[in-house]
Amino acid sequence: MSQQADCLFCKIVRGEVPAEIVREGERTVAFRDINPQAPTHVLVIPRDHHENVAEAAAQDSGLVDAVVRDAHEVAVQEGIADSGYRLVFNTGSGAGQTVFHLHGHVLGGRGLEWPPG
Prior knowledge:
By secondary structure, the chain is an alpha+beta fold. The protein has one domain: 2-Layer Sandwich (HIT family, subunit A), CATH 3.30.428.10. 26% of the residues lie in helices and 21% in strands. It is built from three helices and five strands, in the order αβββααββ. It has a five-stranded antiparallel β-sheet, covered by helices on one side. Strand 1 and strand 2 form a beta hairpin. The longest helix is centred in the middle third of the chain and has 16 residues, at 63-78. The chain is globular and about 35 Å long. The termini are far apart. GO terms for molecular function: catalytic activity. It comes from Nocardiopsis algeriensis. This is Histidine triad (HIT) family protein.
């Protein structure tokens, strides 16, 4: 497994930093966001370190599929799959990525119409 010693999300995968884990898959871990933007806000991350979704897609065939598949399983488990949910990947600081370890945000539990307003 490829991880970085100083990466917050790698530390969560290793159990060195506490998180409210809601699902563990073979290749992923899902946990509640500490600053939720919706009633349901869960992060789904790969166990292996990849800086962002684009890097993972280029380097590891099937990893992004696993993250998306497990994100849907989180939505089912959280009871938001039928009403609808948003899955967001921020790539780069200009897009709001603050932890440079691939993570998908599963958001739901209220209306998330686009554009907002």
